[in-house]
Structures are given as structure tokens and as C-alpha cells.
Write a structure and sequence with these properties.
By secondary structure, the protein is α+β, with helices and mostly antiparallel strands. The chain contains eight helices and twelve strands. This is HNH endonuclease.
Length: about 250
């Protein structure tokens, strides 16, 4: 703003009126002069040829110097951010681009007037003015607790399935979870998963990996989707999957 304009009486009167309407407080952060901030008048729009004091009061608002700079994208805005997506890095290997803290859960947030940044849980909640990140962490923690209980449950039992008898077959492990019968078939070359007699084709390298997959499929609803897609196909016949037949060297009918 040119000095000559600032000195005009019309502008001073208009500026004072806007500050009075907003009770001499920033309409964005709520701070006033007593908080040590400089108050300025922000124009929500500009019309060519119109003087700064020739606007409707509704077209202007009181902002502190910092919030005014944010609004015009001179500095990074602190509000109106939106969470785009989240990624679990597996360990504290990431860095929050706002506060510099180490993070495992990385949240990519976007702003219509600023480039996207990666932040941690606290900064994500703060900038988006939500609890999406912290709620996600709590939900993940509850999932992990249920998973741990499932993996270490004393309800797992092992038995020999005579129908699968072969030189490569070792034994079967079973448990009931949320009205689903989970069976993990252990062979000399890997572990195979079967839920409610629906056999999968994946060869898991460990018992733990197969259990985690079973838990995820049931908890996430993936198993139900799988069943709907495979309805009427051979996987529903109560017999080993093609992969398991190959592992056990069983000839299909």
C-alpha cells in the first residue's frame, strides 16, 4: 500500500470502522493489540479502479499481520489443511516437515494455497483442526492389541488331517474367530490358509504370517469380498487348493 493512500482520511475512517466492527480483534486467531499483534484490514476481493475504502464492510475483515500474511500465502497457512493420505513407515524413520520430530506414521496434508507437506500425528490434527490422525493411531493400536491376542491365543490347536496325508504334510492348526473357522495347513514347503473351507493359493513362509493374513481378512472384511467374487468356483469345493495340492503332490480329480 502506498504511503499517500495510508494517509488519506477516507482510508483511516474506513479502516477504523472495520476494526470497530470486529472489536479490534483478528477474525482468524482472535488476538488483539493487547496481545502484541498489529491489526490490519484484509480485503476479501479487489475490484479494479476502486479505492481501498470504497468497499462494503462485508468485503473486509480485521486480521493480525501474521494471519494476513497467511491469507495471502506470504507464509505457510496454519488452517484449512486437508488430510490426503496416511502411510505407516514401520519405524521412526520419517521426519515431520513442520516440527522436525521423528515419526512412524506419516500424514500427507494438502492446502489449496500451499504445497502439500508430510507431518506427524499432532501436527496433522493441529493443521486440519480434526482428530483424524490421533483417531487413526488409536484405531491402529486397538487392532494391534486384537491381533496380538489372536496370534497368541491358547485356543489354537493342532491336529492331523487324514485327507491331506502325504510325505510333505506335517499338520494342521485351527481356531474359531468371529464365527469363522480358520485352518492353517503346515507342509514342508510352507503354510497354506483355509477359512470356512475356502482354500487360498498363497504359500506363506511362516505360521505367524499365515495367522496375520487370516486375521486381516476376517477383520477387514476382505474374506467376505473374496467369497463374493469366487462364488460358484472350485475354491468352494471342500478340497485342497491347487497350490496346496501341488505342495502335497496330490492329484486333482
Amino acid at each position: 500500500m502506498k504511503p499517500s493512500i495510508c494517509k488519506k482520511k477516507e482510508w483511516e475512517n474506513f479502516r477504523t470502522k472495520i476494526l470497530e466492527i470486529d472489536n479490534f480483534r483478528c477474525t482468524k486467531c482472535g488476538r488483539g493489540r493487547e496481545d502484541g499483534v498489529v491489526l490490519q484490514v484484509h480485503h476479501k476481493k479487489y475490484i479494479r479502479g476502486r479505492q481501498l475504502w470504497q468497499y462494503d464492510y462485508d468485503d473486509c475483515a480485521t486480521l493480525c499481520k501474521g494471519c494476513h500474511a497467511e491469507t495471502h500465502c506470504i507464509i505457510m497457512p496454519k488452517t484449512n489443511w486437508v488430510l490426503a493420505y496416511h502411510e505407516d513407515l514401520g519405524d521412526l524413520v520419517g521426519t515431520c516437515e513442520l516440527c522436525g520430530s521423528s515419526l512412524r506414521h506419516a500424514y500427507f496434508i494438502e492446502h489449496e494455497h500451499w504445497q502439500g507437506i508430510i507431518v506427524g500425528t499432532y501436527c496433522c490434527d493441529n493443521l486440519t483442526d480434526t482428530t483424524l490422525a490421533s483417531n487413526h493411531i488409536e484405531s491402529q493400536n486397538r487392532y494391534n492389541r486384537r491381533l496380538k491376542t489372536f496370534l497368541n491365543s491358547s485356543k489354537w490347536f493342532s491336529y492331523n488331517d487324514r485327507e491331506l496325508h502325504s510325505k510333505n504334510y506335517i499338520c494342521s492348526h485351527s481356531i474359531d474367530h468371529k464365527k469363522h473357522k480358520v485352518v492353517i495347513i503346515e507342509t514342508t514347503i510352507g503354510y497354506f490358509l483355509r477359512i470356512n473351507f475356502v482354500a487360498g493359493e498363497t504359500n506363506f513362509s511362516s505360521f505367524e504370517e499365515a495367522k496375520e493374513k487370516a486375521f486381516f481378512m476376517i477383520e477387514s472384511g476382505t474374506f467376505r469380498t473374496y467369497v463374493e467374487k469366487k462364488a460358484g468356483k472350485d475354491q468352494f469345493v471342500r478340497r485342497p487348493s491347487n497350490a496346496l495340492q501341488s505342495a502335497l503332490q496330490i492329484k486333482s480329480n
